[in-house]
Amino acid sequence: MTLLDRFAAVARPAPIAMTPGTSRRLWPRLLAHGGFRTGLVLALALLILAALGPFIAPYEPNWPDYAATLKPPGAAHWLGTDATGRDVLSRLLDGAHRSIGAAALVLGTIFAIGLVIGTIAGLAGGIVDTVLMRLVDVMMTLPGLVLAFAIIGILGPGFLNLLLALVIADWAYYARLSRALTLSARQRPDVVAARMAGIGWPRILFGHILPGVALQLAVVATLGMGGMIAAISGFSFLGLGVQPPYAEWGAMLAESRFYFPIAPWLLLAPAVTIFASVMASNLIGNGLRDVLEPKGRS
Q: N or C of the chain: less Cβ packing under 10 Å?
């Protein structure tokens, strides 16, 4: 998602009214969308690999075998071996939960923080809204990539430090968007009618406002899944994420770049999985956007 797309989403939110039958009507429309189906199948395959990878890996992913260094793909090693004789397929499977699982964890944390802060600001208004949004404004003025590098520079390289840095660098955008969607949802006819009927804000929040805001925020998070996987892989490629000898797709790319002329299979395997992850998240996110906001399609 480009910066222009983000500002457009904040400036012109289109809140969704979630009723008990909305989800039942939504799934058939999503499954009828070709791009969503393709992305869903690809995503499920990657999730299965991430969940079962460490258990179905044919070899121990971190044990070197110097008698089998840089072996090309074959019957014994389907994707070949690296410079220390480790099986590439085993490392690819073992690294899947660090790339995909870590991205899901970061986005889930960002989603929760942004949803809570944005909804509170949008409903409370007044001084609460002012204080929270000034904090969001401060965070959004800092370039996310630079802020993440700064946090890692303070805390030091490491996988947990990288995940914390990505959460801190990106939560403010979700809070801003959640607030904008909440403010728009407050003006919907069903919410106004509920207020006129004397229904309290807690019931209105959980029954009318929060489900639709969460759904639209989930679309944005889904679109950001591929970018988050790429970001985690990029930081690991630079040596700031997963540390040796543990496998992660970006770290595998970094290790393979020195051997590409003689062992190209080392580069192709993690590159293809990263590309497939990004494509799956984009297809699912675009499908959700097309179904939920059909008038907004270009």
A: C
**Residue owning tokens 């080392």:** 266
**Per-residue model confidence (pLDDT) at position 186:** 85
Cβ-count burial 247-278 (b if 16+ within 10 Å, e if not)? bbbbbbbbbbeebeeebebbbbbbeebbebbb
Token pair belonging to 75: 């019957």
Domains in the chain (CATH in brackets) are: 27-47+86-292 (1.10.3720.10)
How far, in Å, CA of 283 to CA of 270, rounded? 20
Cα–Cα distance measured from residue 8 to residue 138, given in angstroms and rounded to the nearest whole number? 20
pLDDT at 3: 38
Residue with tokens 């690819």: 92
pLDDT per residue as tens digits for the range 182-233: 998 888 888 888 888 878 778 888 888 888 899 889 888 888 888 899 999 9
Q: How far apart are CA 218 and CA 289, in angstroms?
A: 10
For 85, counting Cβ atoms within 10 Å of its Cβ (0-12 exposed, 13-18 middle, 19+ buried), the class is middle
Structure-token match 């799956």, residue found:
280
145 phi and psi angles, rounded to 5 deg: -65, -45
State residue 85's pLDDT score. Answer: 94
Q: Which of 160, 170, 172, 112 is nearest to 136 (CA)?
A: 172
- The string of pLDDT tens digits covering residues 80-104 is 999 999 999 999 999 998 999 899 9
* CA 43/CA 288 separation, integer angstroms: 14
Angle among Cα 284, 218, 236 to the nearest 5 degrees reads: 75
CA distances in angstroms from 237 to 95, 121, 173, 229, listed in the order given: 13, 38, 26, 12
Which single residue is written with the structure tokens 């003025």? 141
Which regions in the chain score pLDDT beneath 50? Answer: 1-21, 296-298
